[in-house]
């Protein structure tokens, strides 16, 4: 298997792990593999901004994905290149003999509906680490495995990125197939659902699309929030959902928000998403974080002292993905520096992570909104009631409410010591207008993407 196959396979993990499909398409979609030698995997991009963003924000995610595929710690190296070299199509480009002889399956053809179940066999119920943060979700998943479509249909798992929603969803599919090999299980992201639909419309072959998605026993759809604002996709998903539910087929969905908070989703879909059971998966507690790290290290056959697990668990308290990324970074640094993993090496390896964290503050939001609408921050905080100022002001208030933990009183103080009710009115107005005003929603999506690149 050559390095192109490894990179393509890694991208299937990366697309799942990254919170934003827009960010993936912007920074990573066109990256290509260059070489793999001495545990260093080199990829190339064509723009300096892409290189910088990958190194700052996505390096640990990519290294974790490559390590999973190659079953060993991998260090990512990013370079600039004007174009993809033709010689990379040659499988002998790979330097590592073990890599050449790998029997890892090639990634599924994303453009074809004649796919298999799309499940990652590494996601199982056995290696899903259970703690207080996810025990309810895990119990519900076990119930679905034991009795598909009997109790929780749909099962709707929601929470922030990197908390294990995709792992648990795919574990459900893998376990169902393990117990019932004759059942048909299909896992897709909502983006793939949309792309398949568009392709079939283009080819005038919607019957194939409907047959693919409706002739299944279990449908698993990841990141369903991305069908917001896509009227055609929502219409087709509505009928797919109804068809499967009427046939008593199991549906499992994930999202970054609970159904009622998907404000630009059609009401009839939000209502159906609430027919079954909705469960919030939250940030794991300290004990669970330690257990996750230990499980990850054991899967890589690496022995690490408990002191290191405890240090990482105290240092990283955001999500599972960053935990595993921190562990991979320590292992990678130990490998390239030929040092033992101890507390000093762990502290040195993770020292740069604080610099990678970009906190979204009211001031940052105001700066981005003003830059987008070409207005001055003083106007945003001032008394002006002209539409060209009021709309951006309300957009900034809405983003402060949704992207930070600020309450209405605190937001009111930031925007010129306004009354709390005026902020509530502004946020509510934006939420309602986003449902009918596609241009406004597009503007807010763009600013949000800029805040979360």
Explain this structure to me?
The chain has 453 residues and is an alpha/beta fold. 55% of the residues lie in helices and 9% in strands. The chain is built from 21 helices and eight strands. It has helices at residues 3-17, 21-27, 48-70, 97-100, 135-146, 165-179, 190-202, 206-214, 231-246, 267-273, 286-299, 306-315, 320-337, 343-350, 353-356, 362-373, 377-381, 387-403, 408-414, 420-436, 438-451; strands at 32-37, 40-45, 75-80, 155-158, 185-189, 218-222, 250-255, 277-280. It has a five-stranded parallel β-sheet, with helices on both faces. β2 (40-45), α3 (48-70) and β3 form a beta-alpha-beta unit. The chain is globular and about 65 Å long.
List keywords for this structure.
453 residues; alpha/beta; five-stranded parallel beta sheet; three-stranded mixed beta sheet
Quickly describe the structure.
The protein has 453 residues and is an alpha/beta fold. The chain has helices spanning 3-17, 21-27, 48-70, 97-100, 135-146, 165-179, 190-202, 206-214, 231-246, 267-273, 286-299, 306-315, 320-337, 343-350, 353-356, 362-373, 377-381, 387-403, 408-414, 420-436, 438-451, and strands spanning 32-37, 40-45, 75-80, 155-158, 185-189, 218-222, 250-255, 277-280. Strands 5-6-7-4-8 form a 5-stranded parallel sheet, with helices on both faces. Strands 1-2-3 form a 3-stranded mixed sheet.
């Amino acid at each position: 298997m050559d390095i192109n196959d490894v990179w393509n396979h890694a991208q299937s993990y990366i697309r799942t792990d990254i919170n934003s499909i827009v960010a993936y398409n912007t920074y990573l979609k066109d990256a290509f593999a260059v070489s793999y030698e001495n545990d260093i995997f080199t990829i190339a991009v064509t723009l300096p901004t892409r290189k910088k963003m990958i190194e700052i924000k996505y390096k640990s995610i990519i290294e974790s994905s490559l390590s999973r595929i190659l079953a060993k710690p991998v260090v990512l190296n990013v370079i600039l290149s004007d174009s993809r070299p033709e010689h990379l199509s040659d499988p002998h480009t790979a330097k590592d003999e073990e890599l050449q002889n790998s029997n890892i399956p090639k990634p599924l053809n994303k453009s074809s509906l004649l796919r298999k179940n799309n499940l990652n066999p590494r996601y199982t119920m056995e290696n899903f680490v259970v703690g207080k943060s996810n025990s309810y979700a895990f119990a519900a998943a076990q119930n679905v495995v034991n009795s598909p479509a009997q109790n929780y249909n749909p099962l709707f798992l929601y929470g922030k990125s990197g908390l294990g929603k995709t792992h648990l969803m795919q574990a459900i599919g893998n376990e169902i197939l393990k117990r019932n090999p004759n059942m048909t299980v299909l896992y897709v992201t909502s983006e793939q659902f949309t792309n398949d639909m568009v392709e079939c419309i283009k080819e005038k072959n919607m019957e194939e699309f409907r047959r693919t998605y409706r002739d299944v026993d279990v449908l698993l759809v990841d990141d369903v929030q991305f069908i917001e604002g896509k009227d055609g996709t929502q219409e087709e998903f509505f009928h797919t959902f109804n068809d499967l539910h009427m046939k008593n087929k199991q549906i499992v969905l994930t999202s970054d928000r609970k159904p009622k908070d998907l404000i630009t989703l059609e009401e009839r879909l939000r209502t159906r998403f609430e027919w079954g059971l909705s469960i919030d998966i939250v940030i794991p507690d300290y004990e669970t974080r330690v257990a996750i790290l230990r499980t990850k290290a054991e899967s890589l056959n690496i022995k690490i002292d408990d002191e290191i697990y405890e240090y990482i668990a105290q240092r990283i308290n955001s999500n599972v993905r960053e935990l595993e990324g921190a562990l991979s970074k320590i292992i990678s640094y130990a490998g390239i520096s030929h040092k033992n993993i101890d507390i000093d090496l762990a502290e040195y390896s993770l020292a740069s992570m604080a610099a990678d964290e970009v906190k979204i503050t009211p001031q940052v939001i105001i700066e981005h909104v003003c830059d987008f609408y070409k207005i001055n921050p003083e106007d945003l905080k001032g008394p002006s009631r002209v539409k060209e100022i009021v709309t951006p002001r309300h957009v900034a208030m809405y983003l402060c409410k949704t992207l930070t933990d600020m309450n209405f009183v605190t937001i009111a103080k930031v925007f010129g010591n306004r009354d709390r009710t005026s902020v509530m009115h502004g946020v509510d107005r934006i939420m309602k207008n986003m449902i009918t005003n596609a241009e406004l929603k597009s503007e807010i999506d763009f600013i949000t993407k800029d805040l979360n690149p």
